[in-house]
Amino acid sequence: MSEDINVKLLRNRDAIDAIDRQVVELLNQRVLTDGGADEATVLAKVARLNPGPLSDATLQAIYRAMMLAGLDPAAQATEPARVDALDLKIVELLSQRVKHAGEIGKIKHANGADYYDPTREAQVMAKVCALNPGPIQNQTLQLIYREVISGSIALEKRLVIAYLGPEATYTHQAAICNFGVSLEYRPIKTIPDVFAEVESGAADYGVVPIENSTEGAVFHSMDMLVESDLHICSQVYLPIEHCLISQSPLEAIREVRSKDQALGQCRDWLRRNIPNAELVDVVSTAEAVCTAKASEGVAAVASALSAQRYDVPIQVRGIQDRDDNVTRFLVVGKTRAKPLGDGRDKTSLVISLRDECGALEKTLRAFASRGINLSKIESRPSRKKAWDYYFFIDLVGHYEDANVQAALADLEGHCPLVKWLGSYPNVTPAATM
Ligand SMILES: O=C(O)C(=O)C[C@]1(C(=O)O)C=C[C@@H](O)C=C1
Fold first, then answer.
1. Which residues form a coiled coil (predicted)?
2. pLDDT by residue (tens digit) across 156-213?
């Protein structure tokens, strides 16, 4: 971008920063003020106050994110007019904010840049948390800002997000966590098809699971990262709470269906509580819920969101074997995320090694000698030749960092394959549900 355009972009970002300072302050005053209205009344009011251009649905999602956490216990009951005045200020400031975001959008459009900028979003999230005087928790503030940014993007372009479906899967939940509710979501049947949808341009971004803290890697996604030209532009860590969902009570369950990974994450619980039930591996957790709905004695292991979406009762909540059960998801697209700096970027690579003594050691030395921290290394059959392996590496740093560039140049000298999969902010959006 030319200097002129950059100045214009920065001017609008400065204006957004000034508005955010006020919004964060007002949101905190808002949760300390109880006008006595219920959620539906508040949502109807913000739609009434809405001066545009944000949609009513976006404003309501912003307020829902705030109300989800509830009023602060120290909230003072006050006359509704005082709360209305606060709401009016918040809504007006958000409307000014979105106009500046719109100006930025025009600049991006004129320069062929993407509206979605995961690095700037990470900066906005860090900024609002740093400004936050409380009592709103930072996590709630991030959920609110997720919806603010989602609404801004939606006014520029209704981005299409393809995810491993059907609706209400954990991947759907992770996608909303990253992009907010104002964009368009498209459930896709398989992981390769999610990649294909983005490669063809039918969708702007794709969201796929990559690893779970209990069950390990999702091989399909790893294989697709090797084959595809898409980059990783963001990541989401989602805490997973599995539920046993069925029309029948626990004693009557003879079959449990889910995706193999989800069954694996609940293996001990299932063995202890319904040892005689047959475990059946199906294509997705949401499909398991749909089929459990129609058959007595059949249960699904899936999210509370899918029980709600498909209207099937939850028999038992939280049946995962470990409480710290977290799945990491990747957002893939054609965008290259810019560096965030300060050790807050992550880079993913895939390499192969020569079949010779010391090949792995030489590779590791290329990183260690430059002070680059590897956060993960995992091998996987290359599927090209028997006993030939790919190594998937995550490191702390960005592709544009000089030491990362030098390490990659070093690797290119002795590894048959070195493929950069993406550099992206090593932070995660707050979980939505
Ligand atoms: O600063 C930008 O680049 C913007 O487009 C604004 C904004 C925002 O609303 O704060 C919107 C979308 C981007 O993904 C990041 C930030």
1. none
2. 998 999 999 889 889 999 999 999 999 999 999 999 999 999 999 999 999 999 998 8
Q: Is 207 in the pocket of ligand 1 (CB under 6 A)?
A: no
Residue 56: exposure state from Cβ atoms within 10 A (0-12, 13-18, ≥19): middle
121 touches ligand 1 (CB under 6 Å): yes
Residues 6+ apart with CB under 8 A from 369: none
Residue 36, SS3 per DSSP: coil
Say if ligand 1 is within 6 A of residue 152 CB.
Answer: yes
The complex's ipTM works out to 0.99
Report pLDDT for 371: 98
Site to substitute for ligand 1 among 13, 23, 117, most atoms within 8 A of C-beta: 117
Helix pair 359-368, 402-414: axis angle to 10 deg: 170
Q: Ligand 1 centre and the CA of 14: distance in Å? A: 12
Q: Is 328 in the pocket of ligand 1 (CB under 6 A)?
A: no
- The CA 233 to ligand 1 mean position distance, Å, reads 15
Distances (CA, A) of 140 to 69, 117, 180, 412, 432: 7, 21, 13, 44, 9
Q: How far apart are CA 256 and CA 425, in angstroms?
A: 38
Structural domains in the chain, sorted by start: 3-156 (1.20.59.10), 160-239 (3.40.190.10), 243-319 (3.40.190.10), 337-425 (3.30.70.260)
